[in-house]
Amino acid sequence: MGLSLIVLAAGQGTRMQSDLPKVLHPLGGVPMLAHTMASGAAMAPERVAVVCGHGAEQVREAVAEIDPEAQVVIQSEQLGTGHAVLQAAPVLEGASGDAVVLYGDTPFIRSETLEAMSEARAGGADIVVLGFMAEDPGRYGRLVTVEERLLRIVEYKDATQGERAIRMCNSGVIMADAATLMQLVGEIGNQNASGEYYLTDVVALGRARGLTAEVVLCEEAETMGINTRAELAQAEAAFQARMRAETLENGVTLTAPETVHFAQDTIIGRDATVEPYVVFGPGVTVETGAVIRAFSHLEGCHVSRGAIVGPYARLRPGAELAEDVKVGNFVEVKNAEIAEGAKVNHLSYIGDASIGRGANVGAGTITCNYDGVFKHRTEIGPRAFIGSNTMLVAPVKIGAEAMTASGSVITSDVEAGALAVARSRQVTKPGLAEKMMARLKALKAAKKG
Ligand code: UD1
Ligand code: MG
Fold this sequence. Notes:
Layout: E1 4-9, E2 26-27, E3 30-31, H1 32-41, E4 47-52, H2 56-66, E5 71-74, H3 81-86, H4 89-92, E6 98-103, H5 111-122, E7 127-133, E8 142-146, E9 149-154, H6 161-164, E10 168-177, H7 178-186, H8 202-208, E11 213-217, H9 229-249, E12 253-254, E13 267-268, E14 273-274, E15 279-280, E16 285-286, E17 291-292, E18 297-298, E19 302-303, E20 308-309, E21 314-315, E22 319-321, E23 326-329, E24 332-338, E25 343-346, E26 349-355, E27 360-361, E28 366-368, E29 378-380, E30 385-386, E31 391-393, E32 396-398, E33 403-404, E34 409-410, E35 419-420, H10 432-448
């Protein structure tokens, strides 16, 4: 009795003025489609069909990343929402449970709302439609009801004056037994003002066969669809506001919440602190008690308990900071594990590296990880001390408790406990500076005179 999810994502999104398919525009750092799929995923669907049309190949790649189990079906001509759902028939073949239809460009439907729809189904309604009371009903489809019963959905274009006065609108989300839904969808015609196959017609078709239909209402904010860049910006603002509120509720200190930007999957532990102007890209986990100081940018990384990051730090994918690590200002870390208590406090690049427990990496240290073609690793042992401005030319290993002299260019391994000095020797000539200066001043005077 598994649930089937049908996500409509074939529309062109002309008003986005973009080469990127609409549903792939990022919201909270991930494609907006990922939000829709995540609300559906919370219902643990057995089958997921994503109906694609415009930019199908790009959408297919994105879907594979979001949910490798999801199946992409192609709607080559956009003949309407009913026609779109019909394309999912092969995926739903033999399904015994319910199906729910969601839109890829309507990312804020909460999983609790879908649960409420499931409950209405369990309560005996054959078809459940998610509706909302519209502030301005505009061109939404109207829900024609008598008491609790939904009689039909009428599209704005086809509605009478009287029907247009209805404020209860169709969100587009609909739930019914999968086999029944597919059967009804197969019967939809296109004799209407738009000449389209309207999914909404399943209500009247179902009722004509004696099925019952009900409305579940949600907040209008949940049904926000994205059609333009301006709406995308509004959606981003709404998403950020919600994440900030949730993060505060979870016991995280945000000193200036309105300046912090989250991704859809950001996880921050209780009693962590995030200072102003921090940006979280996708894939970040920050554990309890960690401090992310101002103006830091994090993505695809893990910050353990008690670690301190920033100000002005950049953690890129694969940065793994163990407990009590310090990564300071103007430090970039990529694909590198930094073990417990190690410090990289100033102006460094640590890429494709591992740094042992308690090691100290001096200011201006660079792991020279790239030779122009290949990437190479740097390994720094526990409690090693890397002098300021050391260039670690990878592949290279620095042993436990070894040291490098500041300004060294390290091109070969340094054994445990050794000190490596790899810089040119200093030559100091007494009095030469004074002499040079006198000569330059004399030259300048001669020029003037
Ligand atoms: C639809 C509903 C309307 C509802 C509104 C809510 C119908 C007939 N109308 O209208 O009652 O109030 O949504 O926003 O269902 N799509 C496809 N293939 C198609 C057509 C659409 O995949 O052939 C996708 C679109 O990409 C979009 C979604 O379905 O994600 C809805 O399509 P859209 O054209 O926006 O429908 P509306 O006219 O807004
Ligand atoms: Mg629409």
